[in-house]
């Protein structure tokens, strides 16, 4: 790229720099080879580099120009290399009569070849020689490289003669791409021109199909490594989908095929319209601005926009907070809209390439084009689509017979996607471009058109691949125009560690998960949801609610309440009647309830179940809410939904079902407990009958209701073996690779500080507790199931890690080890978590349970948080009846069902205030030390 003299003025005065370096050599008769002189030269160059780059950063902060900054840094580097080369040639390795072989040309390649550099970019150089290497050439190259390395640059380089350049470019696509982007910096210009001329004639000519196929394949493989979605909330701005490398790939292809030097020439070639070219430049400038700021901010070549830098970049780019949206969320929304534009440009340029060649065979757009480019096969079969006048199918892709198809009938905006979904057609690139150019026709009249809404609803509720079709609608811009409320959440990110995707991507993925459940492809993960979805009276309301459940994100009002209002407005437009509309609105208003209650409430507590059932009111709503909850969690991101959460949701469903069906259900409490006992008894057939009977009486009803069948067996064998061995302390470690956790089952004499001891031991070993199930047996033992985050890939390694943790717990309980002191919040904050602020909140509630006071503590998650909380609860002389540990990204929500030491609720207002204060302090890492005797002595006494 070329910048004006005004853009570059004052950055670096190379003539003055050359003069100062020459002056340094005068006392040595112009000989710059002396090491003292070299040291002084290096010092002078370092000063210049520091000053020039600081100036470039200052100008970036002032004018915000990303490409300007990248161009200025490239110019500084060019001038630096020119000065170093001239100094080496004139003062270090002087030759009076150079031979034809003693000349060289220095060219920039890679991103540097495009005339753009980020602050932390590598410097890629190609030293071009006329023939073989000479001692002079070797010395000059070595001098330049060592000087650049000593200046702190990371330099990639190659030294080749022209014949080598051409030969290697023919066989190595990376080298071919590097030479394609080569740019003359200094030295012998005719040498560079000769290489460029031969490269064009001997390598590029006639080989564009091969090059395009290779670059698109390379791009797809890169996307696979980085994450296939361009809507990941911590994107890689260089290598990720929709990033700078995608723009580079587009220009490589265009430059190679159309023989252009600048992007602007693509307008003359008819590849891009002026508005599309403007989008190209705007996207490129924005991405470069972000990248330069990121490198300057971190002081290293960082390419990932991680949470801990996003807010600072947003401030540097002058984004401000709006009602309902933080400054960082507005910045990231802009980023994702740019990434979307890059995707559009990819399709446009590939469409232009296809117009010059042949139509794509059946398969995905770019993949099919690559196969065609490799094979050279041509096919142009065009068939009218029955029932869709004006549309034709060409090799499994929909195209149009006339560019006026949307003007003549705007409902075709929806019809084309309905046809694509029905027949699994892809959109022809020409059609995609026409849709984008015609979006102004998607207006109020079309939104209220009954046929258009019928077609949209058929896509949304399709039994084929609604996710795929909705994503096409979103990428073309139709979805956001036809449903403006959806358009407001397009590219919107939520600044937290819980959600992995933007809001629009999450909504579309949730529809895909829902369709997958309906097809029965997720039975192992959500067996209950898979069974229930086939029994729904009206599946349409489920899909509409799923599509709209987060539609009101980014508003000042709670998104569940605001979303219900949006649903009441928009559902009649979609053709839903009053009853269906009200059901959709209710589902959206309560779409978080089931997840929250399942993960943070005691599901064996009857009041919890009664209150939840009162909210739900009907069995049909319960079914709908269960399925919607499962799909919502699954669509948040990989690994968010796991077997433990699935079990909690099933338990809540089965516990609530009798209250909504008049008590006539196969899974009433009594029946559920009886079934659990009978199932376990059958699996313990190898036990003596007397032992089986005694064990079945060893647990309270709550235990049978909330414990999975497999875990019932595990616990039974653990306790039975401990009885046989005469032990009162027993442990078991079970790695669970599928859920990404390791399960620790721990039995010991019950004591109020037992959970705190376990939490402290886990903290000491660096183990992160992600969930806990606390149970007490009828004979006075605590049976705790603790789930810690998995760290090692191999099960046996992870098992040994778990055994080390349980060994420490054992030593702590016996009094052989002391627990660590409470940790400070400041010292425990690590990595990305530092970027977030979560308000600490402590609720003390006596209305949620008939028997317990419920403590709900929310705040910023950190290592040792659970330990500090349980220590504080112990010092408050409270008994923990059950604990429910939940983490939502950076936010921890820990709930404890407690009583005082007499088994009563905490009714005294003054004591409630003390509890709130102590637990709020614990979240901040400030724990009041307990003067009472440690749990170890109590447990040790009981065990002996």
Automatic annotation (TrEMBL):
Residues 743-825, 854-934 form the ACT domain. Its EC number is 2.7.7.59, 3.1.4.-. One of its GO terms (molecular function) is [protein-PII] uridylyltransferase activity. It catalyses: [protein-PII]-L-tyrosine + UTP = [protein-PII]-uridylyl-L-tyrosine + diphosphate; [protein-PII]-uridylyl-L-tyrosine + H2O = [protein-PII]-L-tyrosine + UMP + H(+). The keyword Magnesium applies. It comes from the Bacteria. InterPro entries: ACT-like_dom_sf, ACT_dom, HD/PDEase_dom, HD_domain, NT_sf, PII_UdlTrfase/GS_AdlTrfase, Polymerase_NTP_transf_dom, UTase/UR. Residues 503-625 form the HD domain. Keywords: Hydrolase, Magnesium, Multifunctional enzyme, Nucleotidyltransferase, Repeat, Transferase. Pfam families: ACT_ACR9_3rd, GlnD_UR_UTase, HD, NTP_transf_2. Residues 1-384 are annotated as: Uridylyltransferase. Its cofactor is Mg(2+). Uridylyltransferase (UTase) activity is inhibited by glutamine, while glutamine activates uridylyl-removing (UR) activity. The keyword Thylakoid does not apply. PANTHER family: BIFUNCTIONAL URIDYLYLTRANSFERASE/URIDYLYL-REMOVING ENZYME, BIFUNCTIONAL URIDYLYLTRANSFERASE_URIDYLYL-REMOVING ENZYME. Modifies, by uridylylation and deuridylylation, the PII regulatory proteins (GlnB and homologs), in response to the nitrogen status of the cell that GlnD senses through the glutamine level. Under low glutamine levels, catalyzes the conversion of the PII proteins and UTP to PII-UMP and PPi, while under higher glutamine levels, GlnD hydrolyzes PII-UMP to PII and UMP (deuridylylation). Thus, controls uridylylation state and activity of the PII proteins, and plays an important role in the regulation of nitrogen metabolism. Belongs to the GlnD family. Has four distinct domains: an N-terminal nucleotidyltransferase (NT) domain responsible for UTase activity, a central HD domain that encodes UR activity, and two C-terminal ACT domains that seem to have a role in glutamine sensing. This is Bifunctional uridylyltransferase/uridylyl-removing enzyme. The gene is glnD.
